[in-house]
Design goal:
Elements (H helix, E strand, L loop, with lengths): L4 H11 L4 H4 L2 E6 L3 E2 L4 E10 L8 E2 L5 E4 L5 E2 L2 E5 L4 E7 L3 E18 L2 E4 L9 H4 L5 E18 L14 E5 L12 E7 L2 E2 L4 E6 L11 E4 L5 E4 L5 E11 L7 E14 L3
Parallel strand pairs: 2-11, 11-19
Antiparallel strand pairs: 1-3, 3-4, 3-8, 5-6, 5-9, 7-8, 9-10, 9-11, 12-13, 13-14, 13-17, 15-16, 15-18, 18-19
Amino acid sequence: MRFGFSRFLVVLAATGLLATPAAAHRQWMLPSSTVVSGDGVWVTVDAAVSNDLFYFEHQPMRLGNVKAWAPDGSELQLQNSSTGRYRSTFDLQLNQRGTYRVANVGTGIGGTFKVGTEERRLPRGTTAEQLATAIPTDATDVRISESQNRVEFFVTSGEPTTTVLAPTNRGLEMVPVTHPNDLVVGEAARFRFLIDGRPAANIEVHVVEGGIRYRDQLNDRTLRTDANGELSVDWPNPGFYWLNAEASDTNTSTPRATQRRLNYVATLEVMPS
């Protein structure tokens, strides 16, 4: 019997031999297409959290923080939104020509503390306003961290534009040097990463080709940004790719938090040459 890749990941994770990007559940949004043409065209999007990229087997991505922006920068309404057992779906009607951006941006607070000798965790969903009452006054060994998370993709209808590619200068972001809907096998693309608007130098960026459910090798490439926060990515095959960057610093805004964890994910489609 063939030893499936998913079982292989589970065994490695249990033994502690798997690197973090491979072991963790991956968040992603997958559009039906990233390059379309015509008037009033539609794109359908699947959104989930899973081990196998672009395959539904763990849990849906919640859509409460998902927003879409049209080429002129105006917010676009999600249509026909639905959340099931393993995935969420929604539709976008593209009535403008140009490039759209769709992102799930969220923040959170996590941490642990001790009451006597008992270690406790902050309840999931604790806000900065609730932090003062969530931690007892006699707590010791308090360790609080912030998290900022961005998961996104881009769609172009007709000619590509760049208005929605401008950074917000909040958290970890990717600013495409090569347009994200102009990726072709055999042509290297260049991306710039920023943290709060400043170059994210020397951070790791993981690139994984879709379809890992059907191969025995993850083929996870780990790249590193230069002093300007930039890197170059080549594409061995056409199809969808998952790009993930992570960073951490101490630029927190939450009382008592000592660390900020930053996570960025993009789904990119690469066309044949």
